[in-house]
Amino acid sequence: MKLVRFLISREGFISVICYAVTALFSFLSFAPLSLPFFVWLAPFGLFLIEKRNRGEWKKLIYHGFGFSILFYFVSFHWIYHMTTVFGGFDWYLAVPIFIGSAILLNFKFPVYLLLFSFLAKRVGKFFPIIASFSILFAEFFTPQVFPWYFGNVVAENQILAQNAEYVSSYGLSVFLFFVSYYLFSLRKPKTVLRLLTNFLTKHKNFQKQFLLGGLSLVLVLVLFFGNGYYLFQKWSNVKPIAERDVLIVQPNAPLEFRDGRNPAEEIRNLMTRIDLMTERELKENPADLVVLPESGVPFFTTHDSEVTRYSRIYWHQFESLMAIISLRHGTNVFYNELDADLIPTAPPGRISRRDVRMYNSSVIMNPNGERRNSYQKVFLLIFGEYMPFEWMYALSGQTGQFAPGTNLNLIPYYEPRKTASSQSKDLHFEDTMAMGPEGVREYYSKEKVEEKQIGSFLPLICYEVIISEFVRKFEGDPDFIVNVTNDKWYGNSVESYQHHTLGRLRAIEFRKWIVRSTNSGTSVFTDHLGRNIDNDFTPIESTAVIRKKVQVIPGEMTFYRLYGNLLSYLYLGIVGLVFFFYAKRNS
């Protein structure tokens, strides 16, 4: 009842309007709408709530949760879809799960309000710097499953996005809140008139503060726009050292069969679909690399081992089809699969289910149809690929029980065959019913070429691409980045566009192209300037192919790759110390 009374009061109405301003303007600024004008107004709701409730700590916490819930409802509404479809929960369970996750995973809002209010009372001035310092602290030190930063919205501006090479999305958040607070201060015409009047009356102290504030704003604007323009020009003029012809196959694979479909029939249709899509695209014009998405062929592996056979995930027809595609067209094939091994403490001689570890894995098959390097997903998604507690697995039968990988090596790929197949009759999926992987390789034995590595790429599975600090842990200099993902659980929503946009900054931080391959949309190629090539996105919930020439940009260790978030830490440290001594001196 107390909540209802608050919501119908004048204060409650104004508060909800503030929540809505931040939530809606952030959403409008972000993909797929991408209306960047609104981003500069989005923090106004936070600023106004803090100003109206400065020093009232309990109220600020409640308002922070209000921002969390409405922001989540507007920007992450697809999580409710995931909860009901992926988790299988009824609506009366899905709603409290949605609200609970909104609060737990958006603590940045109450933390921001509390820190801003605390510094505003202790310092009493430098509010644009307080605003930028507070958002950086809140984004840095609060838990987020989907790291959605305000800086990602700023990066919709192509020039400003280039600054991510030095400061990542964190630094762009700092820039946004610094500039936005100036705009917030000038939101009323009377305020602007009063400032000009006071300035013209020649009060020296006021004139000094006015000029200092205006100069700092101009300096920051020139710094970010100037540096962004310089970097854009610099990297636009870089000539690639090679080009790779890459084909993405989007098969729209089924994820589960709770609707009564025949699993065997659906999987056969899927494999036939992949077979025909690749043949249609490659028969007359071979490619260097074919990329299949996460769960492009679900439930199975091509890794033939005692453990995978015991776990019943090895399927010889899956391996045979991948070998057919690579040998038929003389190309590299990168695909996703399950994989399994035993825990180190497993007793020898007998395999038991509790000793088996499962992995979300992606593997390369060379142009000779031979399975080569694989990558096991390291950064697992909580509630999707693992549960924090054992008893929680009973809540959702769809949640995987995966172990994290440990290898952060690049995936090598090999020189493709330069001639067409000499076979009078090429193999297809139906042939795998009678012909195993070795039979396929024997059939195409005359097509075998010398294995020659021509490069390597950085493999990322699903949401790993949005964790900038994780991606820079990979060793070596890749030719490009490959992100395979499965967004089918989220239906026909904006999630797939948001997912890509959150990961798009990796292209700028690394100055490498990104090949994004999805199961059901949206697949896209992004260049080293963060531009989506031809703005060519595959449609959602459909089968599709997309093919581009991926440029290999000369290897250069960018500032972010070398030093990570060093500049953000320096900003927090220096500004924090200045505020500490300033507040202590004036206390």
Offer a concise description of the structure.
The protein has 587 residues and is α/β, with parallel strands linked by helices. It has 21 helices and 11 strands.
Strand order of the largest sheet: 5-4-3-2-1-11
Which percent range fits the helix content? 40-55%
CATH architecture of the largest domain: 4-Layer Sandwich
What number of domains?
A: 2
Distance between the first and last residues' Cα: 41 Å
The CATH superfamily name of the largest domain is: Carbon-nitrogen hydrolase
Rg from alpha-carbon coordinates: 27 Å
Continuous helix count: 21
The CATH first-level class of the largest domain comes to Alpha Beta
Major beta-sheet overview: 6 strands, mixed
Classify the oligomer.
single chain
Low-confidence stretches: none
Strand content: 5-15%
Overall pLDDT metric? 90
Secondary-structure-based class equals alpha/beta
Number of strands: 11
CATH fold annotation of the largest domain:
Nitrilase/N-carbamoyl-D-aminoacid amidohydrolase
General form: globular
